[in-house]
Amino acid sequence: MNPKYPERLRFAHLPTPIERLERLSKHLGGPEIYIKRDDQTGLATGGNKTRKLEFLIAEALAQGCDHVVTTGAPQSNHCRQTAAAAARYGLGCTLVLSGEEPSSITGNLLLDKLLGAHLYWAGERPRNEVMVEAAEKLRKMGRKPYPIPLGGSNVLGATSYVLAMKELTEQLKSERLNIDFIVFASSSGGTQAGIALGAEVYGFRGQILGISVDHPSEALQTQAAALATATATHLGLGHLSLAERIKVNDDYLGGGYAVMGEIEREAIRMTAELEGILLDPVYTGRAMGGLIDLIRWGAFTRGQTVLFWHTGGPAALPAFADKLL
Ligand SMILES: *Cc1c(COP(=O)(O)O)cnc(C)c1O
Q1: Among the atoms of ligand 1, which is closest to the Cα of residue 280?
Q2: Sequence-distant (≥ 6) Cβ neighbours of residue 293 within 8 angstroms
Q3: Within the chain, how many helices (H) and strands (E) appear?
């Protein structure tokens, strides 16, 4: 299989390192745990959206756009990385955030402001609807906006994780490492679609497990599989069905999106205290909490290896300070 990749900018710090979590693995007494540090992609504290934005901003520039518009939750890592990428390329940036402006401006929201983004509060209205409106307003002002969907999860965003699997399989080969499971936080499905398709293209034989952050597994599996198929077509690979490779666990939805519970708190503290690595309350804390729980239930054997793909997010930690301590 020979994918034809679209234009891409290069601002992410790649390849991101793979590290062995020796103390955490020993503490849990289960499989050997490794971590892929996509929290270190370099864009204003980094994260998985940085890879996606290399393709998305490239297309925005190729189309002669002078402004990007996207949407997310108030503590969205995607919005913060989009604001940083826009700043770097001299583009304006409008962020449509859900709800009302909170009284305390902290975490990613503080960074959005520092990065010069214009913020729109959607209140109770559907974010996408407000995003279309914001883009229309910009056009009337003579600007040329480039809309980026929630989480940057379209074929371009997913494409970046196909390439990330090329990067990973090359690292595994040169480090003579075999990985049985890849585990990560999954939400809008772009990362999972790209990893699944990349696994197919670059011959990764292990299993791929997304821990859902906010959707029932069936809905997310369907969405990610459809995006993976569309991405394959976009890369000139013809029609591929990736449904078999896309597995989502939704046992850890807890109190809902961005509601931090005991599972997330324990995972964040354990990873910080044993490994000196920061997770985030919304995504990676939940995914690592899920992984820890699965290990305790005996889902893996001792000789197996698990790669936890750190997708970023600790910039949100200050917004959850009162629930973390
Ligand atoms: C956006 C995000 C995810 C989820 O990625 P999707 O491609 O939307 O599934 C996971 N972790 C972090 C930290 C994120 O910001």
Answers
A1: 13
A2: 251, 252, 263
A3: 11, 10
Our answer on whether the CB atom of 74 is closer than 6 Å to any ligand 1 atom is no
Contact 18, 37 (CB under 8 A): yes
* CATH (one of 3.40.50.1100, 3.30.70.100, 3.30.450.20, 3.40.50.300) for 18-47+153-324: 3.40.50.1100
- Maximum Cα interatomic distance, the chain, rounded to a whole number of Å: 61
Cα–Cα distance measured from residue 37 to residue 167, given in angstroms and rounded to the nearest whole number: 12
Which residue has 């940036």 as its token pair?
Answer: 93
In the chain, CATH 3.40.50.1100 sits at: 18-47+153-324, 50-151
Question: Is the bond leading into 281 cis (omega within 30 degrees of zero)?
Answer: no
Query: Per-residue pLDDT tens for 57-106?
Result: 999 999 999 999 999 999 999 999 999 999 999 999 999 999 999 999 99
Contact 78 CB / ligand 1 (< 6 Å): yes
Give the DSSP letter of residue 213. S
Annotated active-site positions, please?
76
Q: How far apart are CA 64 and CA 230, in angstroms?
A: 25
Instruction: Report pLDDT for 108.
Output: 98
pLDDT tier for residue 325 given thresholds of 50, 70 and 90: confident
